[in-house]
Amino acid sequence: MTTALRTLTLIALLAVTQAGHGTLRCGSSLVSDGAWPYEVEESCGAPDYIAAYPTATLPGLGVIQTEEHWYYNPGPQRFIRRVIFRNGKLVRVDDQGYGFHVPESPSCDPGTLRHARTEYELIARCGEPASKRLEWQTPATNSYPQHGYALQPVLIQQWLYDFASNQFRQVVTLRNGRVVDIESRPDS
After folding, report:
1. Is the dihedral of CA 82, 88, 52, 153 positive or negative?
2. Helix (H) and strand (E) counts for the chain?
3. Does this model's pTM top 0.85?
4. What sign has the CA pseudo-torsion 89, 94, 100, 102?
5. CA dist., res. 181 & res. 80, Å (int)
6. What pLDDT, in 10s, does the model give residues 27-79?
7. Between residues 3 and 87, the one the model is more confident about
8. What percent of the chain has pLDDT over 70?
9. How far is the C-alpha of 130 from the C-alpha of 163, rounded, in Å?
């Protein structure tokens, strides 16, 4: 393989890798990094679910940075897409596993919770929780080598679901929008 061919191959691979980071295809439209929420909605339609979070605050000023997660569920034959905006700019698009048919009225029990994989799936199948907690955690700096890596804060949420009087409450822990743990909590 000649040096020129290697260079062209490397450039093409880098372009494909970078294009997928914050790119979303909707029909014949393509929206990418830096797009406005309006532009995404114009190309892709209204999302199935939107979650908004403060990501930074300053004493005396309040919230100075926000993040929105938009979920598009195209049904069971395609992947759910989570579109992440930070301060009104598209920064990332994630696949969230296969989509599903949304029930007309959510009906939830502990078994349903145990099959949910994402924040959107919890909302679609079980509705809003009785209560939520959220915090942003920064990974420990010693877990990253000093090679210019930017530390990305991790969104940790705990959602409390309260069921009928004969069932324990359930606390669902999510990490960056994905279910990572479910624990039973006896009524106090």
Report:
1. positive
2. 4, 10
3. no
4. negative
5. 21
6. 888 888 999 999 999 999 999 999 988 877 777 877 778 889 999 999 999 99
7. 87
8. 80
9. 10
Encoded tokens for 71: 């979920």
Residues 140, 180, 55, CA angle at the centre, nearest 5°?
Answer: 55
CA distance 92 to 19: 10
46 DSSP 8-state letter: S
Taking alpha carbons only, the member of 187, 184, 156, 186 closest to residue 170 is 184
| Contact in structure between 139 and 175 (CB atoms under 8 Å) | no
Q: How far apart are alpha carbons 71 and 51 in whole angstroms? A: 9
| Contact assessment for residue 185 and residue 170, using Cβ atoms and an 8 Å cutoff | yes
| CA pair distance 35, 89, nearest whole angstrom | 6
The reported pLDDT for the residue numbered 48 is 95
* Beta-bridge partners for 90: 85
Question: Residues 132, 158: contact at Cβ < 8 Å?
Answer: yes
Tokens of residue 42, six digits: 């114009």
- What's the rounded Cα separation, in Å, for the pair 70 and 63? 20
